[in-house]
Design brief:
Oligomer: single chain
CATH class of the domain at 114-316: Mainly Beta
Shape: globular
Largest sheet: 5 strands, mixed
Order of helices and strands: HHHHHEEEEEHEEEEEHEEH
CATH superfamily of the domain at 114-316: Aromatic compound dioxygenase
Low-confidence stretches: none
Helix content: 25-40%
CATH architecture of the domain at 114-316: Sandwich
Strand content: 15-25%
Radius of gyration: 26 Å
Length: about 350
């Protein structure tokens, strides 16, 4: 007679430890009560800011569903779209950032968190192609390997709002090659290219060699590309050069420069262009001048631009004004749901 088989041990499902509300919620016999209950659930958050954000998110999500009279099939399509967006992400590709970009949300968050102040350089979207592995580039050297595009010399100064130079600022810069691809888009990528990290000198000056940026389409082989086709939108960005500037005591600047004349300047698919960031490029024909700056021969393009950084205190004061305005909105919202 065979021994009885063992019953596999199964761990009991474990709750997260929170119990039901002290006062029972009304059972939702209509959509409005359901929304009110969902907002009340978010009120349990201990942190006031967390509570405000998630109550507001819940309210707007429910309002969206009601206003659009969305069907079950349409909502399932949305869930599948978001699932596919996450599945498309890798360590070098961020499809969710791209999704945020094409809805203008990245640009909006950037604008709110980096209010324009006087002479300070305006910010722009980070984009999904920044990496941490840029090589350190000495003053005047190249961020691009040979053959990546037309020669360009980039130079200028890093200044504070008083016009004084900021020495030893860290500058991260990156761009596409002349085919419109970032290095991370190549499957055979061996390391960073068309990107670099450098420092401003004692007089706040910076200088490096690069290639002339070109307009390019954002990746169209994922869910975001499908979305743009669905609503008949182009997926192009105007030519630009990314810059990120940091120095202790100063607010980090994430921005980009956009050469004038690009056909996509006024319809950037990620809404990154600002008038103050549109720049003029100058063509230098001299072979002698080209060799002087490390190019093999002329011509080359010259881009000269100064960046003005806010101090941490200046940025904090500017952001404080935005926060105060948001607190008034929060107070109005709490009255609305009370």
């Amino acid at each position: 007679m065979s021994a009885p088989s063992e019953v596999p041990k199964v761990n009991k499902a474990v709750s997260n430890g929170y119990g039901p509300p002290a006062e029972p919620f009304p059972l939702p016999d209509n959509a409005d009560i359901l929304t009110q209950n969902a907002i009340k659930y978010m009120s349990f958050a201990g942190d006031p800011r967390t509570r405000f954000i998630f109550q507001n998110l819940t309210r707007h999500l429910h309002q969206f569903v009601k206003e659009t009279d969305i069907t079950t099939e349409e909502w399932m399509t949305a869930i599948q779209f978001l699932t596919a967006t996450g599945q498309k992400c890798t360590s070098l590709r961020q499809e969710f950032i791209l999704l945020s970009d094409v809805f203008g949300v990245s640009a909006l968050v950037d604008a709110i968190n980096n209010p324009n102040v006087g002479s300070a350089t305006e910010s722009s979207v980070l984009g999904p192609f920044f990496t941490e592995d840029a090589n350190d580039v000495p003053f005047g050297e190249s961020i691009a390997s040979e053959g990546k595009g037309e020669y360009m010399l980039v130079q200028g100064r890093i200044l504070n709002t008083a016009g004084e130079p900021i020495p030893d600022a860290t500058i991260e810069t990156w761009e596409t090659d002349d085919l419109g691809f970032y290095d991370t888009q190549y499957t055979d990528r061996q390391g960073p290219d068309c990107r670099g990290r450098l420092k401003s000198d004692a007089e706040g000056r910076y200088q490096y060699r690069a290639v002339v940026p070109v307009s390019y389409p954002i990746p169209g082989d994922g869910p975001v590309g499908t979305l743009l086709e669905l609503v008949h939108r182009h997926n192009n960005r105007p030519s630009h050069l990314h810059m990120m500037v940091e120095k202790k005591g100063y607010h980090k600047l994430v921005t980009a420069l956009y050469p004038e004349g690009d056909p996509y300047l006024t319809s950037d698919t990620v809404y990154g262009v600002k008038k103050s960031l549109v720049v003029k490029l100058t063509k230098i024909e001299s072979d002698e001048e080209a060799r002087k700056h490390g190019f093999k021969k002329g011509p080359f393009t010259l881009l000269t631009h100064d960046y003005v950084l806010l101090t941490d205190d200046e940025a904090r004061e500017a952001r404080k004004k935005v926060t105060e305005a948001n607190l008034l909105k929060e107070a109005e919202f709490q009255k609305l749901i009370s």
